[in-house]
Amino acid sequence: MSEADLLQPGNIVRDRWKVTTKIGGGGFGQIYEAYDLVTKENVALKLESAKQAKQVLKMEVTVLRRLQGKDHVCKFLGGGTNELYNYVVMTLQGKNLAELRRSQTRQCFSLSTSLRISLQILQAIESIHSIGFLHRDIKPSNFSMGRLPTTCRKVFMLDFGLARKYTNAEGGVRAARPQAGFRGTVRYASVNAHKNKEMGRHDDLWSLFYMLIEFVTGQLPWRRIKDKEQVGQMKEKYDHTVFLKSLPSEFKQFLEHIQSLHYEDKPDYEFLQTLFRTSIARR
């Protein structure tokens, strides 16, 4: 990130978290590894400048706190704000799935690994939907494997800065806005997202479908195209059944299910999980 670093190694946040190194700078902030002086473990510290126009960390904290106790979620350790920055502290995880895929010899995972990882991502997506939020930026770099021997085969969902509440006070689905504005990442966005339509639960699943294809084949047909409109048109015209050649036969039903869904619809997560489990059992 071009912004000056908000913290330096050795800085201590709220008398508890001692910064060791900067591990990332995203579009909206900075991420540091820090040492928790109370629990004696390494943690992740996410910051955004209090001065920046687009404040997303408040949403991150809201969603992360609501998700506590659910599977595939980092533990929330603290958060707050001062004159300089807003911050959130959570468990530190291992490498993200984008880094891991690119580090493979053929830039792809085995089919078995792809299915197991994607099933866990499906479960994580169901968790966030169950608390009334959409993620809206489902992509490999927003999922990490655990860092410890006990969690290293477990997938964790990260980054809730673009999340949106899709339910109203009564628990029903909010009315869709006619023009919602693009959210997400071009490579993995659904056709709806490209059209600036209000995103629903099924749009997070479209992104999972595109991730699965990339995990298995190492690439998506539009990977080299940067232009959002061009990619949107390509996705709309593309015969998605071509992707099924790379996947177990069950995934015809996965594709048909997500194609059948509209904004208000609740996906049949159990049915989709069963498709994964059946195909994994045969591997």
Automatic annotation (TrEMBL):
What is any Pfam family matched here?
Pkinase
Q: Does the keyword DNA-binding apply?
A: no
Record GO terms (molecular function) = ATP binding; protein serine/threonine kinase activity
Which positions are tagged coiled coil?
Answer: none
**Chain sites annotated for binding ATP:** 46
Question: Which residue numbers delimit the Protein kinase domain?
Answer: 17-276
The protein's UniProt keywords, in alphabetical order, are: ATP-binding, Kinase, Nucleotide-binding, Serine/threonine-protein kinase, Transferase
Q: Which GO terms describe its cellular component?
A: microtubule cytoskeleton
Its family remark reads:
Belongs to the protein kinase superfamily. CK1 Ser/Thr protein kinase family.
Q: What is this protein called?
A: Protein kinase domain-containing protein
